[in-house]
TrEMBL record:
This is Lysozyme M1. The chain crosses the membrane at residues 6-25. It comes from the Bacteria. The keyword Transmembrane applies.
């Protein structure tokens, strides 16, 4: 092979690799490195203009120093008002930090919520019963949350049918419509049926300046790399689309 051709091929491979690396590893997260046009807190640029902020946690965050977390609220312009905690996954997997965190969130005056990570390959009714058995919600708590991120290779109609079984059973038990958590893309692709628009929508949409979803939404999980005092690991940050009074109105009566 001529030297010039070998050099051209080498240059082509370098350019192709660089373009692929940028497309898959840099471009989706470019928002992290953009200049912060607003106020920065919790290690990230906070979205404008929301008054009510919160986090969500699971066993991935490890042991939480609730006293330090509470004290932080006295020092910031973006106090944490609400906390969602993972309670269950599938029909048998409980989060081993849930009960302690759920109790301590109430003790320190946070508005608390519990969520279930849906497993498409597991019987939906069994999942609902497992959540109900695990989670006791009281006055002032947020409605139960269904976290939907996977299809489990189910068809769109099969997935929707399974989700409705969980949602209907849980609503019948707690007497309140559950919150539906999923990403912007997942919602528009798999849950665009009007029957799912009746649930309070919690949207996961990272590295954007604002929510582009055209429908009604209540919560926005805007980053997964927040740094919060009292929590050693990175944590998801959220905002509520309304006032604190609106959030309290959403809680169980």
């Amino acid at each position: 092979m001529p030297v010039w051709l070998r050099n051209v091929l080498a240059l082509f491979l370098i350019l192709a690799f660089s373009a692929s690396f940028y497309y898959f590893f840099i471009r989706p997260y470019a928002y992290r490195w953009k200049p912060c046009g607003g106020q920065k807190e919790y290690g990230v640029c906070m979205p404008c203009c929301y008054d009510v902020h919160g986090i969500d946690v699971s066993h991935y965050q490890g042991r939480i120093d609730w006293e330090e977390l509470f004290a932080q609220n006295q020092e910031t312009d973006f106090p944490i008002e609400f906390i969602f905690m993972k309670a269950t996954e599938g029909a048998t997997l409980g989060d081993d930090t849930f009960q302690k965190n759920f109790a301590l969130a109430h003790k320190y005056g946070f508005i608390r919520g519990a969520y279930h990570f849906f497993s498409p390959k597991t019987d939906a009714l069994k999942q609902a019963e497992f959540f109900i058995k695990t989670v006791t919600l009281r006055k002032g708590d947020l409605p139960p949350v269904l976290d939907v991120e996977l299809t489990g290779r189910k068809s769109k109609s099969e997935l929707q049918k399974s989700l409705k079984i969980w949602l209907d059973r849980v609503e019948a038990h707690y007497k309140v419509k559950p919150i539906l958590y999923t990403s912007h893309k997942f919602k528009t692709k798999y849950l665009n049926d009007p029957s799912f628009d009746v649930y309070p929508y919690w949207i996961a949409h990272y590295y954007v300046d604002s929510v582009k979803y055209a429908g009604k939404w209540y919560f926005w999980q805007h980053t997964d790399v927040g740094s919060v005092k009292g929590i050693k690991e990175e944590v998801d940050l959220n905002v509520f689309n309304g006032t604190l009074e609106d959030l309290e109105a959403l809680t169980i009566k």
